[in-house]
Structures are given as structure tokens and as C-alpha cells.
Amino acid sequence: MAVCLAAVSGYSSAQDFPSKPLRLVVGSTPGGGTDISARLIAPKMFEQLGQQVVVENRPGATTTIGVNYVVRSAPDGYTMLMGVSSLAINPHILQNVPYDALKDLAPVTQVLVAPNIMVAHPSLPIRTVKDLVAFARARPGQLNFAAGGAGSSQHLAIELFLYMTGTKIVHVPYKGQGMALIDVVAGQVSLMMANVISALPHVRSARLRALGVTGSKRTTVAPDIPTIAEAGVPGYEVLQWYGVLAPAATPREIIGRLHGVIAHAVQDPKIRERIVADAGEPVGNTPDEFSAILRADYKKWGDVIRKAGIRVDQR
Predict the structure, then answer these.
(1) Cα separation of 269 and 228, whole Å?
(2) Which of 192, 232, 263, 302 could form a disulfide with 129 if both were Cys (CB 3.0 to 4.6 A apart)?
(3) Which residues have CB under 8 Å from 4's CB, separation 6+?
(4) pLDDT at 95
């Protein structure tokens, strides 16, 4: 009888959902890519749900504070996470992560994916990815690359490149991508993986040389720049993704409702235009598709991190 009552109660709550404002938690400070993605879809969600969707920033410990807050929230659909691809990275590099990204969260949908771009200072005597591989193989450990933080997605994108090409380039960590980009432009460091929008002005002014983008296809904002895969490293692909997740025990009916609302928001012409202008690609895939991507990334980055011997202290 208790089981039946619980099932009926759960069904009723799903039917009535939502009856109060919702929270979309961001595990970083305002203004970054995760925060912007959340604030992009929140108004459209309100239009369809009839309830406010409040974006709530809970930064700290490399997004762990915000993620853990959502994991520990009631699984009723009213508290969601705007997650980023570091969900598949942090458990492998941070100490004492208090959640299991694969077991404690229910993927709803990816909002967008975006590539990075590999750039080099013009003083480096290379023009292509193949040139870089040959140059680095002839000088193991003599080149260096910048990254905004050990274990960041840009750092691991280079580590995957090194692993797939059998090259050795020394990592120079920075506290943020902006500082790293400044030093590469100044020629203090040889190369880096950078945000496409941040790096393109320097590429267009010839202060940096673009070698390739990390996606499986060329980006619409710079169609003249090849992918790293087509430029000499077949099978290489790294995409930064942003997506919505909920506590694991959230009823499937509510997950489905949230998915429909967010997927519809992502298809809005103005939102799509904004995402594409920032070198991203709108997604809106199913919960099962998003779950498969999270699991694949979890395995891929776990392998790369173990082979590279990366480990950082949680801050």
C-alpha cells in the first residue's frame, strides 16, 4: 500500500509540475560561459512553464560546491544544474569530490557545444598541425603551451593532442585563460588551446597563427580554419559542452517535461543566433543521448588524465 501511495503521489506531483519558481544553479561566478548559457535559456523556460527560472551562482572548489548543492537537493525538478564538460573531468583530477557524476545526476539535455582553437605565436616556425607535430617530435620537451588552470578543458585538449601524436610539450599553467592568451600573444609561451571568440581577433591581426579547431567540423565564424582532425590528427575531437542536469532520483516524467521545454528554447531563432555568433552549436538532445556523451567523456578524460599523470588539489 505504501509503495502504491508513493507512486500515486509521485505521478500527481509530476502532473502538477511546476507549481513554484525553479532554480538553475551555476557552479561558477557570473559572466562566464556556464552563467551566460543559463541566463540565455531561463527567460524562454519561464515563457513555457509559467514559473520563474532563477539563475543561482554557487561558485567554488572548481564548480564542486554548486554541483554538490544540486546533488543534495530534493529530486523534484525545482533545482537544476547548468553543468559543463568539467563534470567528466573533475572526479579524475580533484581530491575528495563528494559526488559521482554518473550516478548522482540525471542528464536532461545539452544546450550547446563549442570548440576551442589551437593557436601559436608567429615566431614559431610552423604553419600547420603537421608542422607542429614534426617540430615537436624533433625537439621533445623544448616547446611549451599555456592553459588557464591545470585540468581545465583547454589543458586536457592539448594533453589529448600530445597523447594522440606521441609528442612532448611542456605545460605552463595560468590562473585563467585570459592571462594565458596574453602571454602567448606576447611570445612568452609558444601555443595554447583558446576560446574561439577570444582568440580570433588576434588571429585576424596576425598576432597569432591558427592551426586548427577542436571540433569534428569547421566553425561557422571561421570556416577558413581547418579542424585538427583534418589537419593531421585523424579522430581528434574535443568539444566544450553546457547542459542541464537534475538530481538522479528526479521522476522521468519531470525530466521529460524539462527536456521538452529546454529543447524548445534552444530552437528559438534568437537563442540559436546568439549561440552560433559565439562559435557554438545549439543541441537540445535527449536525456539518453546526453547521458551517453557524459559517460563517454568520463572514460576518455579519465584515460587521458591517468596517462598524463595529472592531479591537482581541490580549491
Answers:
(1) 30
(2) 232
(3) none
(4) 86
Domain that holds residue 51: 2-114+239-308
Residues 6+ apart with CB under 8 A from 208: 119, 120, 121, 122, 184, 185, 199, 202
33: nearest Cα among 140, 114, 154: 114
H or E segment and range at residue 209: strand 209-213
Cell 532563477 sits on residue? 54
The reported pLDDT for the residue numbered 183 is 97
In the predicted structure, residue 315 carries a pLDDT above the cut 50: no
Residue 227: DSSP 8-state: B
Residues 6 or more apart in contact with residue 305 via CB below 8 angstroms: 89, 92, 93, 151, 156, 159
pLDDT of residue 163: 94
DSSP type of residue 78:
S
Kindly state whether residues 205 and 125 are assigned to the same domain. Answer: yes
Higher pLDDT, 176 or 231: 231
CATH of the domain at 206: 3.40.190.10
Average pLDDT of span 273-287: 95
Is the N-terminal amide bond of 91 cis, ω within 30° of 0?
A: no
* DSSP letter string, 155-169: HHHHHHHHHHHT---
Q: State pLDDT tens for residues 190-237.
A: 999 999 999 999 999 999 999 999 999 999 999 999 999 999 999 999
Would you say 225 and 5 are in contact if contact means Cβ atoms under 8 Å apart? no
The CA distance from 299 to 304, in Å, is 9
